[in-house]
Amino acid sequence: MPGTRPLLLAAVTGVLTLSACAPATDDGQPAPTQQTQQSPDAGADTDAGEGNAGEPASPAPDGESETIEIVDFAFATEDIEVAAGTTVTWEQQDDSLHTVDFDDGESSGDLETGESYSRTFDEPGEYPYECFYHPRMTGTVTVTGG
User: Fold this and answer.
1) 65-144 maps to which CATH number?
2) Is the pLDDT at 24 greater than 50, yes or no?
3) Global pTM exceeds 0.85
4) Which of helix, strand or coil describes residue 10?
5) Separation of first and last alpha carbons in the chain
6) Per-position DSSP letters for 65-116, written without gaps between them
7) Could you tell me which of 21, 48, 127, 128 has the fewest CB atoms within 10 Å of its CB?
């Protein structure tokens, strides 16, 4: 979509600007918010997020976690179905810079190799996302009632 890129750039710039004003933790990183958290150590559950690309993975029990790897310029699990209260973590394993940008405005910011981004989904619904730098990299988190 030709008009989407400038709007997305403005949104990402705004998020980065706001995160620069957020209180920092001891390691200088922005303090986690209620909905999102970026941490290199997040998402140790490596069995989660299984399934074929394009097919939703099985829902995780309430309060559980799922992991989606970013590898070979793709979200390893494009579409995932989870119960409300589930935390989904994206682990960036590519050498290229990637993002996880949601249609509702939530964004991971730039993720370098080895970094991860987590978001807890409390409300049922569909949450489409894409990589800012590689718009063909898309996925959807479908949240069921919990």
Assistant:
1) 2.60.40.420
2) no
3) no
4) helix
5) 35
6) EEEEEE-SSSBSSSEEEEETTEEEEEEE-SSS-B--EETTS-B---B-TT-E
7) 21
